[in-house]
Amino acid sequence: MPDRGKPNERGAALLTVLLLVAVMAVVAATALERVALATRMTGNGGAIDQARAYADAGTAVARLRIGDLVAANPAKITLAGGWLGAPQSIPVPGGMATARVTDGGNCFNLNSVVSGESEASLKVRPIGVSQFQALLVALGVDARAAQSAAAGLADWIDSDGDPQPGGAEDAVYAQMQRPYRAANRLMVDASELRAVNGITPAIYATVRPWICALPVTDLSPININTLLPQQAPLFAMLLPGQLSVAQARQLLAQRPMDGYGSTVQFWALPSLAGLSPMTEVAEQVKLTTGFFGVDVAVTVGGTQLVERSLIDARESPAMVVRRSWGAGA
Questions:
Q1: CATH for 221-284?
Q2: How far apart are the first and last CA of the chain?
Q3: Which is more confident, 299 or 327?
Q4: How many whole angstroms separate alpha carbon 31 and alpha carbon 222?
Q5: What SS3 class is residue 95?
Q6: Are 323 and 73 a contacting pair, CB within 8 Å?
């Protein structure tokens, strides 16, 4: 330590004190920053929990209303009442929740490319594969790329390890830059399609709005009473080579206000004369909706959260079979 009795060492003592003060200031500033960060994180966590609780409540309300909608007319579901896609705003303490209900079956069910009752017995369903290929072509994807993508999807889900022509199993995925294996099980979320061989980023971006992953292997249950004209590719894919997207759009635009009363009446339309749908395809067209999608966007205290749920309304009461969360746009 410098000797205070020597004038030439008084400056060194002052410098030492200043250095200690500077170090203490840095330590204090760091501690305060961490306390502030921890406070913000705690506040954000609380806001997110609160937003999720409001979203869950909004989904529960939507589920009950869907049950009422189905019970009101079990024979058919139409656009009456303006329920499809209409935003319903619900004030909540400190913010707002907005719910939207969609027809969760008017999409291509990715799991329909296989058939089977258990994960160990999933077999390729050719008609499902051809419908996915037809949808891609209707959306402007090259026919050869569409064929490869459809084959890759079927191999990704089916139980066996034998690739079909143009498809891919473990041997192909093992050679990727980051090796992985084929799932060989049903898809849980449509985003899994990105992992399938033959699905490029461009193809995924094109097809994403048109696909879903229903928890069944049934062919896509298209409700002809709720399918919108802008969703015409989903109907055109049922009759590839027989019905164009433009013809399908015109057909949907001419639908009666109260929908069709029977599928027999629908297939007997003059505009469908001469078409020969397979029995499976004819039965694929529905008058009711079994699955509904519910999106609830919540804004609370500057925090945004979106909850997306799939509601199974095939039996009463309707049930939430899947939900996911994400940040608001």
A1: 1.10.40.60
A2: 61
A3: 299
A4: 59
A5: strand
A6: no
Q: What is the CATH number of domain 107-218?
A: 1.10.40.60
pTM of the predicted protein model: 0.84
Residues 6+ apart with CB under 8 A from 279: none
pLDDT band at 329 (very low <50, low <70, confident <90, very high): very low
pLDDT tens across 81-120, in order?
999 999 999 898 888 999 999 999 999 999 999 999 888 8
Q: Name the one residue in this structure whose structure tokens are 């009442």.
A: 81
Q: How much is the pLDDT for 2? A: 52
Of the options 3.30.1300.30, 3.40.50.720, 3.30.2130.10, 3.80.30.20, the CATH number for the domain spanning 51-104+291-326? 3.30.1300.30
Can you give the residue ranges of every domain in the chain?
51-104+291-326, 107-218, 221-284
CATH topology of 107-218 equal to that of 221-284?
yes
- In three-state secondary structure terms, 276 is coil
